[in-house]
Design brief:
homodimer, alpha+beta, Arc Repressor Mutant, subunit A, globular, transcription (chains A, B), DNA-binding (chains A, B), DNA binding (chains A, B), Transcription regulator ArsR (chains A, B)
Amino acid sequence: MTTARASRTLPHPARDEIRLEGVLHALSDPMRLRIVRELAADGDELSCSQFVLPVTKSTTTHHFRVLRESGVIRQIYRGTAKMNGLRRDDLDALFPGLLDALLGAAARQSARLG
Amino acid sequence: MTTARASRTLPHPARDEIRLEGVLHALSDPMRLRIVRELAADGDELSCSQFVLPVTKSTTTHHFRVLRESGVIRQIYRGTAKMNGLRRDDLDALFPGLLDALLGAAARQSARLG
């Protein structure tokens, strides 16, 4: 692997390094919860630029980083785009039913508060 | 209600003021997650002094306060003891299945990591 290529690979926790507390912290922010809901609804990878959030670009980058470092999403460069995907397989294997319960709770709250 | 009595009543969010993000933040700390697991396992009220946590008393008080202010627990003075109970009814009404999914995930992680 060349240095140039290595610099384009972002660090991720392995499945067994993912901690429940870190996942919950990642999802305790409204913007990050919204990102995860959009990724779950889409079911595929989305580039950072496909998210229109009411925060600055650097704050958006920070939120994606927290989600990646906690093991909630995987971020991969494809050409010049940074693509984001939910780590559903890893989360479902570690904590069966949790992701769906969290998404369900978020949807319910969103419907309630509008 | 007398002033003396009012000062012994701790503020709690009403059910419809409880936010998912706040609940997840409250549970994103290992000590707070442990407190909630113990309350769920006991199923009844426990006084703060019944918890033996590897942190200072003031840190313990802080953790209980975060849990109360997020709506995860209810704290009531009974005589000189501050009693703590899980707000399972409120959480189950707002987010059906979430608390059990969180407790299940915490138990699973605890079994895995020892």
